[in-house]
Fold these 4 entries.
Entry 1:
Amino acid sequence: MESVFFFASKIVWALITPGSLLVTLGMAAWLSLIAGWQKMSRFFLSLTALLLLLVGTLPLGEWLIYPLENRFAANAALPMSPAGVIVLGGAVNPALSDTWGQTEIGDAAERLTAFMYLANLYPDAQLVFTGGSGSITEQAYKEADYTRFLFEQLDMGERAIIYESESRNTAENALHSKTLLNPQAGEEWILITSAFHMPRAVGVFCKVGWPVTPYPVDHYSEKDELLRVNYRFSGNLRTLETAIREWVGLLAYRITGRTDRLLPGDQNACGIESDA
C-alpha cells in the first residue's frame, strides 16, 4: 500500500500543481481561440492573466505557509541530554549529485547545517539521517549516500551516524528509522526538518509511537511583512507550490491514517497538552 500511495501522490501533484494549472489555462485559451470560441477564449485568457498578476505581486504562498511555520516555535528550548538527533532528507539532489560526482545541495540546506550544529552541541547523541529518493524514476540514487559523502568531507566521519536510505516520503522516514533505532520509552529525540514540514513530520512520528522534540528550520515566510506588494513571480510561484503541496500532503496523510491529527503543534504534539 505504501508504494501505491507514493506513486499516486506523485502523479496527482504533477496534475494539480499551480504551475501546471497556469499552463493548462493558457492552452485552453489558445485552443478555444483556434476553435472559434471567442468568449471562452477570453474567459480563459482573463483568468490566466488575473492569476499571473496575483501570484506575481502578492505573497499568496507565504499566506498559506505561515500558519504551518508558526505551529512550532523556532529556537525553542532543547533537551539537556537527548538520546539522538534525527534530520529528514530533502536538502540534497541525489541524481544531480551522481551526475557531477559531488554532493549537490539545493533547498533546505538549513536542515544539514542545523544537524551539524546539534551534532557539536550533543557529542554523545546518536545521529540519524533519513532520506532515500522521492523520485519515481530515479530510485537508484539515494540522498543518504551523498549526504554521507558530504559529512565525511566536513570531518564528521568520526561520529557514528546512522543513514537510512530506503524511505521515499515522510511516512517512510518515520517507519524505517524506528525500525533501525528501536527508540525506548522515555528517551528524548530531536527532529530537524523545514518549518513548514514540521507539523506533518511530527504527526507521522507520533503516529508510529515516537514522540520527538521539533527543531524547525528553513523558513519561507517573512512573518512581519505578509501584507506587501512587489513583483517576484518566480519566487512567489515557488513558495505557493511548496505551501499547497504541504497542505495537500497534510490532508492526504490525515485521510489515509498516516497521522492522527491534521495540524500538530506545540500545544498538541502527540496529543499531549503542554503546561503553558
Note: Residues 79-217 form a domain with the Rossmann fold fold (CATH 3.40.50.620).
Entry 2:
Amino acid sequence: MFATYQPGDSVLHRLSAGVKILLVAVLIVSVTVLVREPWHLLPAIALVVVLYLVGRIPARAAWDQVRPVVPMLVAIGVLQWIVADRDAALRVTGTLLVAIAVAGLVALTTRVSDMLDAVTRAAGPLRHVGVSPDRIALVLVLTIRAIPLLARQLRQVTEARKARGLGMPIRALVVPTVLGALTTADQLGDALAARGVDD
C-alpha cells in the first residue's frame, strides 16, 4: 500500500476499520480461488473501480496505488508466461493488481491508527496462548511502512541504471533492491533491539 490517508465522509470512510480489513481479505481470497480464466477478473476489477468512486478517491491517488508496482507486475507476468502460459500470466498479475488496489483503497480511507486498533482488538484472544497483540500491531505497522520503502528502493535502482544508460534486466533490478531491503531491515532490527522491543 502506497497510500496516504485521504480525509472524507464517504460510506467507505465511515465503515469501521475491522470490517474493511475483513472484507478486503474475503475479496482477495475469493478472487484467488474463483478466478480460473483471465476474463473472470473483470467483475473484480469493475468492483474495485466502483469502490474507488464510492470512496471519492481522486484518479491520481488511485493511480498512485498501482504505479510503483507496475514494473514488478510486468516482470511477474513475463515469468509466468515463460514457465506457464499467457492465461496464467494474466490471472496472476490481474489477481495481484486487484489485491494491491483494494488494499490501497483501505489505506486511503482508513487511518493507520484505526487499523492498528482493529488488529489489536481482533488479536486480543491470542494473549491466552502467549501471543502479544501489540507485537502483531507492530508487525503490521512495519509491513505498511516497508512496502513504500521497497518501492522507493526499486525506483532509486531504476533511476540509477537509466542515468548510466544501462539496461533493465530483472536480475540487475531485483538484486540491488533486495540487498538494500536487507540492509534497511538490519538497521531497523538494531534500532528496535536498542529500544528493548525484543525483550
Note: The chain has two domains: 1-111, 123-199.
Entry 3:
Amino acid sequence: MPHQMIRSSSLSDGRILDGREALIHFQCLRLAHGQGSTLSVAGCELAVVVLSGTCDVQVNAERFAGVGRRPDVWSGPGEVVYVPLGGVLSVVAVSEVAEVAVVGGRTNETRPAFRVAPEEVEAVEVGSRETHSRRRIVHLLGQRHAGRVGNLLVSELYAEGGCWSGYPPHKHDTESPPEETEFAELYHYRFRPESGFGAQLIYDRSGASEAYVTRSGDTFYFTEGYHPTVTSPGHEEYLLTVLVGRHGRSLIQNFQEEHRHLMAVIPGIDAMRKAFR
C-alpha cells in the first residue's frame, strides 16, 4: 500500500508525493512579520491555505492583500488563494507570525487565480456523538469551484474528542465509476490541546494493515486502501485534507462492504458524499 507518514512540525522544503506519477504537493511555511517566501511548482496548481495569521499573497502580477483572519485553525474557516499552473507565488507575513500551507495537485490546464474568503466556504455536518463519529467538514476548494480548478479538492475537518472520521471505512483507489474514482489523499493533523493524539489506520482487502499514532504537525499521504482516523477522548482533531483525482474531479468513495450498514446509522453520510462529487 503506497503511503507515507511524515513526522514533522514543519515541511518547508516542499514535496511532490506519489511514487507512480506525482499527484500531490504539500509544504508548510512559518513566517515572522515581514518574512516572505517565493515559489513555483512545475506541473501543479496550488492552493494557499492560511492556517494562522495574515499574509499578503501575490500570484504573478496579481496581489491579494490581507489573506487570513484567524489566530489559529480552531477560530473559523481558513482563507484560500488559488494559484494556477505555472504561477509564481509570493507570500509575505503581515501579522506577527503567520503559518501557511501550500498544497497542490497535478494538472495540465491553466486557469485564473482567485481568492476564497471564509464566508464563501461550504460546510457539512457528519456523524453524531452517539455513534462516536461527529465531525464537521469545511470545503475550501470544493465542487462549487468546478470549472475554476482542476482535480484538486481541499477541505478542513474538525473531529470531536473520541470520534472517528473517514468512517465508515472507505477507499478511492480504483477508477470504476459510478462505484469508485481514483484519488490520492493527504492529511495534515493538529490537536487541541496540542498534547492530544490520535491514530491513523490504513489497510486493504489482502489483510495488509498498519497503524500510526498521530500528533500535531504530522502529515500522512496515501494512494490506496481503507483509511479511518480516530482521535483520543478529550482532544479535538483538525485535519487539513488534500485530494487529487488521477482522472477527474468527482470523488466517489467506495465504502467497505462489511460496514456499509453503518451508512444508515451515521447521520450526514449522504450529504458528505454529495459535497465531494
Note: The domain at 3-276 is CATH 2.60.120.10 (Jelly Rolls).
Entry 4:
Amino acid sequence: MISFCKYEALGNDFVLVDYLEGIDYCALSKKLCNRHTGIGADGLIAVEDAVISPKMHYFNADGSCAVLCGNGIRCLAAYCGLKGKKEKQFMVLAEDGAKEVIVKDENPFLCTFFAGDVVTYGLNIGLKGEISFWGQQLALKNIKACIWFVKLGVPHAVLINDNGLTDYAEEICSHPLFKEKTNVDFVTLRDKKNIALKTYERGVGWTKACGTGAAASAAVCYKLGYTEKTMDVCFEQGNLLAEIIGEKVFLTGGANFVFEGRFKEE
C-alpha cells in the first residue's frame, strides 16, 4: 500500500508521496495519475527528506520526468508543513537547482518561491540547430505562429494574443525544433499589471494552470515592454503574482490539501 496526499494549486493537481529508493516512479506516475483507474492528477511528486532538507522528484502524468513544476513546488512546501517542517523560509532542491521558498501564511497556505532564471539564448536552451527563437515565425502544417521561446528550468513556447491558435498546441509542443518537446503558453494581454494564460503542458496536455508557464510568460511580456515587472498572471481558477528581478522570476500563490489515502499497487 502506498500512502499519499493529494494537493491542488489553481486546479493544477498532484499526488505527493514520500520518496523511497527502488521504486519505478515513472511507471507509478502513470498508475496514480490516471483519472479513471488511479487517483487522478497532472503529476506525481516524490518528496525526499520533507522535514529537514526537501528534495523534489517530479513526474508528469504520462510517466516522463521534469526538472521543475512551479505549482507543484508550492504543493510540496505545504506537504512539508503537514509532515512537520517548522521553518517558514527554506530551500527545496529541484532537478534544476535549489529554490528558495518563503511561507507567508498557513491557513490558507500561501508562499513565495524562486521560479528560476530566464534563459532565451544558448547552445543548451533546448532547440535543434538554433541557439534562440525569439519572436520568430514557426512553420506549422497550415499556418505560422510567432513564438518567444524561453527556458526556465523547463522549455516554454510563448504566444501573445494568439489564442486563435490553441488548436495547434499539440503540434507546437511536438514540433521538431524543440529537442524534448515544449510547453506551450497562450498569453492574453489585459493591461500593464495583468495577463491571462492558458498552457498546454508536454506530458500532460491542457492544464488548469502552470507555474513555470506563468513565470516564463511574465518574463517574456516584461522583456517586450508589455507589462511592468510585477503582474498578476490570471488562470481559470485564480491568479499568481509574478515579480521579475533582473533575469530571475519569483511567484507568489497558494496550495490546497484535497485528501489523503492509501493506494493498493497490484
Note: The mean pLDDT is 97.
